[in-house]
Design a protein that fits this description.
Blueprint lengths: L26 E2 L40 E7 L5 E7 L4 E7 L8 E3 L2 E5 L4 E6 L4 E6 L5 E4 L5 E5 L14 E7 L2 E8 L19 E9 L2 E8 L16 E5 L5 E7 L5 E4 L5 E5 L15 E6 L2 E7 L4 E8 L5 E8 L12 E6 L5 E4 L4 E6 L5 E7 L6 E7 L6 E3 L9 E6 L2
Antiparallel strand pairs: 1-16, 2-3, 2-29, 3-4, 5-6, 6-7, 7-8, 9-10, 10-11, 11-12, 13-14, 14-15, 15-16, 17-18, 18-19, 19-20, 21-22, 22-23, 23-24, 25-26, 26-27, 27-28
Length: about 425
């Protein structure tokens, strides 16, 4: 299996696996099995007395949202991987060492942090501090965890070089309520079944990637094998062919179909952002920056903002109602491995069209809080041995508040823990 390097921010984790996704407008990827609904409740018989007063039903009390947490990893003094869930006041809510090898990365998600061991068990460190096994999948699968216990994963053993034409085993699965269902299946040779191909790339030479869950389904990408971005924002540069798959119908609606405008971020409602770059940076980094920020809905560009081409851009992060977008920029052509302390956090108001730089250098957005503030990573110090931590940023004033117990040379921020 091919294991090209992914984002440098997770390089310390065990096995890096490059996978990908598929999609074209309303293309039948697979037909999901419908879950039968339960029997309708029996009708309430009419009152025996027409004059009987109706009984007032109590108004249900909304369940309060759990406090915001961030998931982090780091290596102990004895080189053991440790996963932590930390509150925004710095309180360590949950922590666990992971001494056994893992397959791929640790990821944040609903109610905790998730990782796959080399035996195929997907574990979760929860808010309560417990470690549970939530699913099983093939070793080496790359996964995305969504609400209501939905998990998507892909299997993509790389092509067998001795065959002509080369072959792959590239499938996308859904795990829901303990049942495993095939969502998409790319034939081992030839063209895909209804999902299209990546232009200019042989059908055996790209693979699925379950990027993240949205309210409308699973965002997937089709990533070319063996290619990745160098320098700022890593793998975003190859997310040019993306779609959102509805797990109930198996249909994939296109998000982007342009290798020069790879998806950088997607909102819960499916709104996405991409930075159009005339020349996508590679390992040789041409030093060309983005010339436009595009906002897309349903695969169509609905807004476009001109950029200077002086900067590379990425990490697009929408707020809850998709009216504001946070992202990071860095001078185009920055060397790989030394750019983290140079990023600038920017916030764009999508209603007024105004953008501004926020806070000091070294910030990259992670997620919006309900109070309108941002959780961000902060990378400071010597670029060759930077200190990484978590901060809370006020977009209105630019004030930065460090989250205690998160500042460390070995910290890797996974993201916010969702409800």
């Amino acid at each position: 299996m091919l294991n090209p390097a992914r984002d440098g921010r997770v390089a310390a984790l065990a096995v890096t696996l490059l996978l990908a996704g598929c999609g074209s407008p309303a293309s039948p990827v697979a037909r999901a099995t419908q879950t039968p609904t339960g029997s309708a409740p029996a009708a309430t018989p009419p009152s025996e007395s027409a004059s009987a007063a109706p009984t007032a039903l109590p108004t249900p009390t909304p369940k309060p949202a759990p406090p915001a947490l961030v998931a982090l990893t780091g290596l102990s003094a004895t080189n053991v991987l440790t996963i932590r869930l930390v509150g925004l006041d710095g309180t360590v809510v949950a922590s666990t060492p992971v001494s056994a090898p893992i397959s791929g990365w640790v990821k944040s998600g609903p109610d905790g942090a998730y990782w796959l061991d080399t035996g195929g068990a997907l574990h979760r460190l929860g808010r309560d501090g417990g470690v549970t096994t939530v699913a099983r999948m093939p070793t080496g699968a790359y996964f995305a965890v969504g609400a209501s216990g939905r998990i998507a994963y892909v299997t993509s053993p790389f092509m067998a070089p001795q065959t002509t034409p080369p072959t792959t085993d590239n499938r996308l699965y859904l795990v829901s309520s303990g049942a495993v269902q095939l969502l998409a299946d790319r034939p081992t040779t030839g063209t895909m079944d209804g999902a299209g191909n990546v232009p200019g790339i042989p059908p055996y030479d790209w693979s699925y990637d379950p990027v993240t869950w949205t309210g409308g389904g699973l965002l997937i990408a089709r990533l070319p094998q063996g290619r990745c971005g160098c320098g700022p924002f890593g793998m975003e540069t190859v997310q040019g062919y993306t779609a959102i798959v509805d797990p109930a119908t198996g249909l994939a609606g296109s998000v982007t179909d342009d290798p020069n405008c790879p998806v950088s971020g997607v909102a819960a409602d499916g709104t996405s952002a991409c930075f159009h770059t005339p020349v996508i940076p590679t390992s040789k980094n041409e030093g060309r920056g983005a010339d436009a920020l595009r906002i897309l809905r349903g695969g169509k560009v609905v807004q476009s903002f001109d950029l200077s081409t002086q900067n590379a851009a990425g990490d697009a992060t929408f707020n809850a109602d998709s009216t504001r977008l946070a992202y990071a920029t860095v001078t185009a052509g920055s060397d790989c491995g030394t750019w983290q302390t140079l990023t600038r956090l920017r916030v764009l108001d999508l209603v007024s069209g105004t953008a501004k730089a926020v806070g000091p250098a070294g910030l990259q957005p992670v997620g919006w809080l309900a109070n309108g503030r941002l959780v961000a990573t902060s990378v400071t110090g010597d670029p060759a041995a930077p200190q990484t931590g978590v901060v809370i940023v006020d977009p209105a004033t630019g004030a930065v508040q460090p989250v205690p117990s998160t500042q460390s040379a070995g910290t890797q921020l996974l993201g916010l823990v969702t409800a």
